[in-house]
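Protein 1 of 2
SEQ + STRUCT:
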Amino acid sequence: MRRFAARARAFTLVELLVVIAIIGTLVALLLPAVQGAREAARRMSCSNNLHNIAIALQNYHDVLGSFPSGWFYKPNEPDFHESWGWSAHLLPFLEQKNLQDLIGVNTGSLRAQLDPAMNPNGQAGALAVKNALEQPLKIFMCPSDSGFDGRGLTVNRSFAQGLGSTQVGLAGTSVSNYMGIEGHRDAVSSPTNINAGKNTGIFYENSYVRMADIVDGTSNTFIVGERETLTCKSGTWVGVRRPTGGGTGGVIVVVGHSRPKLNQPDPPIVWSDTLGCGEGFSSLHPNGALFALCDGSVRFVSNAIDHRWAGNGLNDHKLSTNGTLQRLMSRNDKLGVPDF
């Protein structure tokens, strides 16, 4: 009797292609869910950063009696005299007191710490400050942001013309995705008008806003919001290169105002324009951005939020024609805030 060896039946080419097609379809269906889950985790981490910053601001207020100033300016200071920003003063309340002591926030101005002729420790001290200012801080970085390594050299936030920066070679500083709420307008002082920098939000020039000054209520007033790097160039926690100027290195690297639309696209309006997102708020979260309120809570705000910027002056924040976004960025307009 002839015996035939049993042979295993192989897949045909058609069967193999069908299996590959099924696997591809399953991956295509699963991938958006995985990406969505990852973004949800990144957004939660970003929200936690904002919440911790908001709580730190409340603790700062409890200890010192007001929120920190957005930035500082004195009429007798020369142009391009670098100034510390609000978040540099917040460092001890974010478990970064050693860093604040190293860079000398409470010792002298940002310009003085960067200039070897003014730094108490000379060239070595100025270089130590420079190196510290270039290092990223995770508390100020949203995980959803992309296209940068946490250093300002890649985001057009140049400090190269600053009086201290040029002495020590500081071109860019550590990035921040969290901008203070300046208020209703883009406002900076000048040597001839020291009061021009006053505003209606929480952080502006030489500001010392107290909880008692938030007439509209802490749950109806934004204190910090997001700005991403890819399109809108984010900012820095360090401070400003030119307290009397806007644009690159000006005050918009630490604050944003209510005039630009949320996630204003670029183009048609470039990031550095008064109406562009480089002076406002944005994120890479789908369809909106995160904001912290003065009560410490964090809310996700849709791009579709009511935006109507009325007028062109300091008191125009009180006009009833202003939108919900504008009302949320003013502390004392006495206008109701609808659900958002």
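Protein 2 of 2
SEQ + STRUCT:
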Amino acid sequence: MILDLFRLDGKTAVVSAAGRGIGARIATAFAEVGADVVIGARSADQLAEVAAQVEALGRRAIVVEGDLGSREGMAKLVDAAVSELGGIDIVVNNAGGTMPQAFMDTTEKAFDGALRWNVTTAFNLTQLAVPHMIERGSGSVINITSVAGAFGDRGFAAYGTAKGALLKLTRHMAQDLSPKIRVNSVSPGSIATSALDMVLQMPELEKAMIDATPLGRLGTVDDIAAAAVYLASDAASYVTGRDIRVDGGIEGSNLAMGIPDL
């Protein structure tokens, strides 16, 4: 059965920034198709809620609360997966995000921070997890990037550059880690999550985002989770070094409305 290829029975996944939004939904989606998960974020309350959803699906959830911006924080995720669940099969690098800001208002510290939070985190978690995936004989790494990494837009000098670098890192890691480990990415477009709460409270901005999207709606966390399940599973066993854009067809927009001209 073709649907069997999408199952993750007996697999263990590590998902960073899984307390809410895209990361949380990927974790529960993995549980729906049979995987146990290690989930990390800063908020214990949010992680507890996600863990309860995973356990309600009959799978195990190991919670790791703490700072994922450091290599030590990522090591705690890997250590928990190995000690509690016996190994690692899947890594989802979901940690990231940077607020839009005018180029001339973006400090060197903010620019460096965007690169570290969106790119170095993925490098660290992947590098730490690779030896344990190799022990299992194979593995899948999924980087959550953004369409902002693929086109230019006002206000995205830091975030867009960081996500573009993560897209490039995806391709390099796919070559370095083949043939045992596949590395791919998912580039979301405008997704209705808590990160967009500020925008969604302004009808004119929400309308502008929808109007810029050929499919005429905002994306959902389910849209992203479905792509992650595919890439994590044997259904994508011949896919590596590739990016799946789950973006409603967007090719550029005024996503950072309100950024003034010089």
